[in-house]
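Lab notebook, bench 4. The sequencing result for the construct came back, and we need a structural model before the next group meeting so we can plan mutations. Quick request posted to the team channel:

Model the 3D structure of this chain.
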Amino acid sequence: MGFFDFIDDLPHYAGRSTASKRMNCHHDFLINDFANDIAGAKVLDLASHDGRWCYGFAGAGAASVVGIEARPELVTEFSNYPDPALRAKVDMRVGYLFDGIRAEIAKGETYDVIGIFGILYHIMDHFSLFQLLRELKPRLVIVDSEFVMRDNATI
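Done. Here's the predicted structure in token form:
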């Protein structure tokens, strides 16, 4: 049984017959492979979509998780996730991720683990992103993204 087996039953995933299989596969290498680092950690998840990875971090034993997502309609989907104890560990925030990171820095916040899943190909200034994240003093930054897959790629 996979962590995300329940996801096919959620309204947001209706009609996506392979969602749980894909999510469980990703969970194995994005969360399970780092379970020791995540356990007890304060986690920041960028571009959190519907909170799927926030929930995954919580399920791996994170002490707390902050998710930043720009689309409020996706943030509202998080309430459909089944385990209230895991949802209680998660603070889903609506906002532009650079603004959210800067706000955390201004408050003096730090994070043990930062997840950057599926967002880098939407951002032009990777250097600024990682410079900002450095100020949050993470022990671990987990990146999963698609990069350019052709010869002579440029930005």
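The chain has seven helices and five strands.
Will bring this to the meeting.
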